[in-house]
Design brief:
NHL_repeat; transmembrane; mainly beta; 2 domains; zinc ion binding; Neuraminidase; binds 2-acetamido-2-deoxy-beta-D-glucopyranose; 4-stranded antiparallel β-sheet; single chain; 30 strands
Length: 397
């Protein structure tokens, strides 16, 4: 689209140069987001990686404009993510459609750390009792916001005290559970290698509790019995702690889980349904696996989607959401900037939102990370690279 604009405006060198500059800026912006993810663990660089990330500029701090280039992918890989939203959310019916033009319900302006700005929102959750309340985990603002739809800013309910390892700080949070029974958040504080409970009641109360330490957590979930699930993105496994017990069980593992890149990893996200089944992306084979409760082996529940993948060899699937009642699986395709749905156990999924490539238009994404539904079936997407939360209204037929 922008190319056409440029052609029309080809009346003078100055304008043309401006167009070129705009395009360059856009490209840089798009790649910055990759920088955010991939530079996370540069220190722990590993050699056997499916994707090579070449850093071409400056420092590795998330605030700076680092230009990274996604250059190769030797195998089919993808990433999995959780939708840890309460089970009260409902994905809906098989013929459901959404308005593909979204509305920014949080963020969407410049990246920043003011209360009306976001920086790399990786998780969006909708409150199980109130559709208007959103919880947003911001990886690079090291905080969790509670944001009421319609208001122009959120409030900090965890972190927000700079990056650090004090009990009142977070360091690259990647996921959380809203635990209504104790009015607390359970947060995967990934760079601090801990899972920490943060009470919402009194924001000045710094009585945080470390639930788990020395653990490379990235994804979290809690089932209907209060059992807790945590993914270890380095060991590529998901463990379960039964409520009240301190010993754990590995409920899903395998080399295809997780997503390793040179210098780092993407979160290992997953989904737990009402029957305590665990769903994860098998990156090596580009499919969704399901471990039924206490099952040793997984079964395949979803596969490829369409053939229009822009980056077919790198499929960074995020944000799984499983509507078991209607046998529907939803996922964010982080790399191809689409939201996908598989109906009825089908091997072939289809795009429901995001048909128009990467961008900042209301019908586009810049790396959609996770998704959620409210009780009306409206779809919410954490648009990670665009620093906004998008809502797509369900269309009633
Ligand atoms: C979709 O949303 C856009 C923007 O809010 C609106 O203009 C349009 O009428 C909506 N379309 C449908 C089918 O609801
Ligand atoms: C965990 O410990 C409890 C007793 O403390 C025991 O009953 C249970 O079988 C153990 N579970 C596992 C998976 O080892
Ligand atoms: C949970 O499992 C039971 C027994 O297998 C099944 O009847 C039920 O439909 C499942 N629930 C959901 C939500 O899939
Ligand atoms: C899904 O499968 C069920 C039973 O197998 C069938 O009744 C239903 O029509 C299917 N729905 C769609 C949308 O294919």
């Amino acid at each position: 689209m922008r190319d056409h604009e440029c052609v029309k405006l080809r009346t003078g060198k100055v304008i043309r140069n401006m167009c070129i500059m705009t395009i360059v800026v856009l490209i840089v912006t798009a790649t910055v987001v990759w920088a955010c993810i991939f530079t996370k663990n540069m220190k722990n660089a590993q050699k056997t990686t499916p994707i090579e990330v070449t850093s071409t500029t400056t420092t590795m701090t998330e605030e700076t404009t680092t230009t990274n280039t996604l250059s190769t992918a030797s195998s089919t890989t993808s990433v999995t993510t959780t939708e840890t939203t309460s089970t009260a959310t409902k994905g809906g019916i098989t013929n459901r459609r959404w308005n593909e033009t979204g509305t920014a319900v949080a963020g969407g302006s410049r990246r920043g750390d003011r209360l009306d700005q976001l920086n790399s929102p990786c998780i969006i959750q909708i409150d199980s009792d109130d559709d208007r309340i959103m919880y947003i985990v911001e990886r690079f603002n090291h905080r969790v916001l509670r944001w009421r739809q319609g208001e122009n800013q959120g409030e900090i309910i965890a972190g927000g005290n700079g990056k650090g390892s004090r009990l009142d700080q977070l360091d690259h949070p990647t996921d959380q559970i809203v635990d209504k029974s104790t009015n607390s958040l359970i947060i995967c504080d990934s760079e601090n290698r801990r899972v920490i409970r943060w009470f919402i009641q009194n924001p000045t109360d710094t009585q945080q509790q470390i639930i788990l330490s020395n653990f490379d957590c990235s994804g979290l979930a809690m089932d209907t019995d209060g059992n807790m699930y945590v993914s270890d993105y380095k060991k590529r496994e998901i463990k379960r702690w039964k409520k009240g017990e301190t010993n754990e069980t590995t409920v899903a593992d395998g080399p295809g889980l997780g997503y390793q890149v040179e210098g780092g990893y993407l979160p290992l996200y997953f989904f737990v349904d009402e029957n305590h089944s665990v769903y994860v992306w098998d990156n090596d084979n580009n499919r969704v696996l399901k471990w039924a409760k206490d099952a040793k082996d997984a079964i395949v529940v979803a596969g490829k989607y369409d053939t229009e993948d822009i980056v077919t060899r790198v499929s960074g699937r995020h944000g799984l959401f499983v509507d078991r009642n209607n046998n529907i699986i939803y996922a964010c395709d982080l790399v191809n900037h689409k939201i996908i749905r598989w109906l009825n156990g089908s091997k072939d999924g289809s795009v429901i939102v995001g048909r128009y490539g990467q961008g900042r238009q209301p019908w586009q994404f810049g790396m959609p990370s996770t998704l959620a539904f409210d009780r009306q079936g409206n779809l919410y997407v954490a648009d990670y690279g665009n620093d906004r939360i998008q809502r797509f209204d369900v269309i009633d037929d």
